[in-house]
Amino acid sequence: MFTVIDNKDQWNAILKEVDTYNLYHTYEYHQITKSSEEAPVMICFSENNRPIAIPLLLRRIPYSNYKDCTSIYGYAGLWVILNGLA
Question: Would you tell me how many other CB atoms lie within 10 Å of the CB of residue 5?
Answer without folding.
Answer: 19
